[in-house]
Design goal:
Number of strands: 16
Order of helices and strands: EEEEEHHHHHEEHEEEHEEEEHHEE
Number of helices: 9
Structural class: alpha+beta
Strand content: 15-25%
Strand order of the largest sheet: 14-13-12-11-15-16
Distance between the termini: 37 Å
Oligomer: single chain
């Protein structure tokens, strides 16, 4: 899409006054996908020369905001990274072609703050910490879970940019379980639940994205039973916090979140108390977002299958 209101493209390394109509340009896959009539100047981050991926002293990983999805996917994963499969699972959760993979950036996905953003899912589940820069060069840090405030809403201040996201080494050593669902096999994520199990203290955590307007993390110091998981999800996510758009109704998103939360619990924790999965959609089975007979596609850890009709 031609942004015919943009009158100037500037190097992001230049210092100057930030004014209304300014925007940072990363990969541009979102920026040029639809009209942006409010924009007048773009500051190109591609010239910053940031190293896409850099190991940290604690065995973690710093991901530059300009790192592309393709670079993240191809990056070698050390043997000690038990959570390594999660990278590819989240990269594959994009509704994107290989051309988008080679242009779209991790930072852009985070800064858009969209519920279905899989880089939000990945970095929130692995305790990612955002490093933010303002125009003066001052920095501040913020956990990914606090950076994304709502659907399309982040804690970025005017003129501020996301420099990088750092994943701690301890998080990369966790066991993980991944579940994702969309209305169609190649559709945008309508629900995405990631479970993690810490090898140090045994904490089990659930990370809910896509179904909700913001990332939700639930931690359990001891292995929970199905009732504890369900109660925690119901308490943490208010009815109005389930996202509502063409990619899924709130009732369906709630159902899939509860279903996946229990599947993830079983995979990482195993049987603890009663293991019967209570169907939140009632005795009729799955909640159908499109009315009787509507399609519901869901992905298990590695496959896409028909979840119900």
């Amino acid at each position: 899409m031609d942004l015919n209101t943009v009158v100037e493209l500037r190097d992001a390394r230049e210092r100057g006054t930030w004014r209304p109509g300014d925007a940072w340009l990363g990969g541009g896959t979102y920026l040029f996908s639809e009209p942006q009539p409010h924009l007048r100047r773009l500051f190109d981050l591609g010239r910053m020369g940031w190293e896409p991926l850099r190991p940290t002293p604690d065995g973690g990983l710093e991901i530059a905001a300009t790192c592309t999805i393709a670079q993240l996917s191809r990056h070698p994963k050390p043997v000690g990274w038990t959570a390594a499969p999660l990278f590819e699972q989240c990269c594959r959760a994009f509704l994107a072609s290989w051309k988008i993979w080679n242009a779209a950036t991790v930072g852009g996905n985070l800064c858009n703050g969209l519920p279905a953003g899989p880089m939000i899912s990945l970095t929130a589940a692995l305790d990612g910490v955002c490093r933010l820069l303002d125009r003066s060069g001052a920095t501040r840090t913020l956990p990914v879970g606090d950076f994304v405030l709502g659907a399309g809403v982040t804690d970025l201040r005017p003129g501020e940019l996301l420099r990088s996201v750092t994943l701690p080494g301890r998080a990369l050593a966790r066991r993980t379980a991944f579940r994702q669902a969309s209305l169609y096999g190649l559709g945008r994520s309508g629900a995405l639940v990631i479970g993690t199990l810490d090898p140090v203290d045994g904490e089990f955590a659930l990370h809910i994205t896509a179904a909700t307007v913001r990332p939700v993390r639930l931690g359990f110091a001891v292995p929970p039973n199905p009732e504890a998981v369900r109660e925690a999800v119901e308490h943490a996510v208010a009815p109005e916090e389930y996202f509502d758009d063409i990619h899924g109704l709130p009732a369906w998103r709630r159902h899939m979140t509860l279903r996946f939360a229990e599947e993830v619990r079983r995979e990482l924790v195993g049987p603890v108390g009663p293991v019967e999965l209570v169907d939140p959609g009632g005795p009729g089975g799955l909640v159908d977002p499109g009315g009787p007979g509507g399609p519901v596609a869901a992905t298990a850890p590695h496959t896409t299958e028909e979840a119900g009709r």
